[in-house]
Structures
1.
Amino acid sequence: MPDTSIRSLPLSRCSINTATLGHRSPIGEVIERVARHGFGGISPWRRDLEGQDHRLVGRHIRYAGLSLSGYCRGTYFPGANRAAFEANVADNRRAIDEAAALGAPCFVFVVGSLPEGTKDLADARSQVSEGLSTLLPYAREAGVGLAVEPLHPMYAGDRSCITSLGEALTLCESLDPSRQGGIGVAIDVYHVWWDWRLSVDIAAAGRSGRIMAFHVCDWLVPTQDLLLDRGMTGEGVIDVGRIRREIEGTGYDGFAEVEVFSRRWWSTSEDDVLAACAKGFASI
Ligand code: ZN
């Protein structure tokens, strides 16, 4: 039986991933709006901060009373050739600098998959492993965790060759066998909810101290678009509350970060989206 004794959490434990608001307003306005609605955290995307001073944005976030739950997201590692791969690693190194300047605890990696025109998934995985391995000492020095986010297998062709929490954990162990830390996972319910091994892998992630982020939203039936039809938490078929309890059962006491890519939600006002995020969070 799931443990239903854990009470619902205050909104201060909920963070807003800025993609949820559709990247419509300047980051300064988004920070103020998220704070005004009573959330405790925010996770900006690189595209929101182009041309900005990351240190100043980080300060604005803290002055608004918010914490950072992460920084999104990595440039895909695999390249069609060595030069492309190295450029991708270099871009991710710059992103780690930005995350450090912001004061973000982790940088979230959607790792990429097959470069266009290729079919070698094993090579893509090997490039991902090499890229993370190259960046790990640098990220440790910067105090930024590398959070590998496994994606749903429907994205294996383009967005992520890492498709399960178990696979992501195996990768973390291979790159950090002594569990020094600095590399872990971002667990997004949208990507992992279907996995029959999920409970076992969440427990393993907790034991090894690898849970760096927890993303919530929902899976709609039917799903109309593979990328832009996520449900708000509570709208779909994922037992988000159960997954939350399992994750917190490992000792994780960080944010639940609402990350909803949805044309439908992006067509409503940002205030309505945030109100729905709060309602969805209360439901878990
Ligand atoms: Zn996510």
2.
Amino acid sequence: MFCADIFPVLKNWTDLQKRRELFEMFADIVVNHFYKNGEIVIIHIGTDMKIKAANSYAFKMLGEHIAGENIKDCFVEFQEIPDLEDIGKEGKECFINYNFDNNFPQTLKTTFYKTDTGLLLIGEANGREMEILRKELISMNNQLNNTTRELYRKNSELERLNKIKNQFLGIACHDLRTPLNSMGLLCEMLKDDISVFTEEELSRYLGMLEEQIKFMSELVKDMLDISAIESGAMILRTERYDFADEIGKLEQTYSMIASKWDVKFNAVINEGDYLIQADRNKLKQVVDNIVGNAIKYSDKGQEVKLLLSEDGENIKITISDEGPGIPEHLIADIFKPFSRMHIETPRKEQSSGLGLAISEKIVKAHKGSIEVKSVECEGSEFVVRICKKI
Ligand code: ADP
């Protein structure tokens, strides 16, 4: 009705005063519209602070139950309650946190007007404040997402470690039970009547006990090593040293061990620069393991060779034997913990299947690599490359 009459007039009207007057004619309609549809909380409270009337938005957001309640119940608990007596002065503004029914407190810019029967309170969302809150919410949400992702990652890592731990425990118990049983039987036998055994028999049995104890302590040491490595606790204590000197020192020990089983050991060191920055004990553990395996899997008269050479920025240690070799399809598995391939050693030694798993981790920590070439019934060759500077 009024649109058709008024808008053509308004377009050309430049007299501000007249324009204001014209709008005042429609003030009731505008107020009514916002009272009913605006996202504004309008509440009238009596002098006893009880809610006497409210608009539909106030009821919608604060709940129907507010009628007759104390206005303070509409504010969140941590909201410092303003002094309503003081605030009731005409047009006083402040920010109040309202207890909205959807459980999200909302801050509204609130203006108080004194009326004949109490106070009229008009609360409206403050755009700038809302924007700040929205940004805070988005950043909190992002943080939450990141934390959740991190939690998932840590959880699956924990699951993986827990699986490994259980697997280790299972195998360790099994591996320790067998030697413990045979040690128990031997002890029982000796305890029953030690006088019936000859000196030679006693020395053999004690030798067997000693061997089992040695195996068990090596197994426990390897398990401690691998569990420390798997849980990311390998610390390299590096120093600068000549790896050729190190091999020179080890050569005699390896020759002695090999000769015990009539196996030949031969080490060759090519001309070159073998100064490296590395963890001496850990690299010795790697060479001990691979040479130890090569001797262990060699039969009488066979030869184990070690060749030290340079390969660009790496030193290269090649260890070869003439033992039973490893079937091609099993080669990748020998680096997995507890991998025992049913390849019998000539002297039927026990094995933990942890040595190569530990060696590979140590070599990788030195930015190096281990390669294996093997031909069944002809022998194996392990090539270790270690970067001179890590
Ligand atoms: P362990 O020697 O205690 O069993 P390793 O991790 O050192 O554990 O070796 C894993 C497996 O790899 C061995 O059980 C064996 O089956 C195979 N293997 C390692 N070195 C050799 C070798 N020189 N010749 C034949 N098989 C080998």
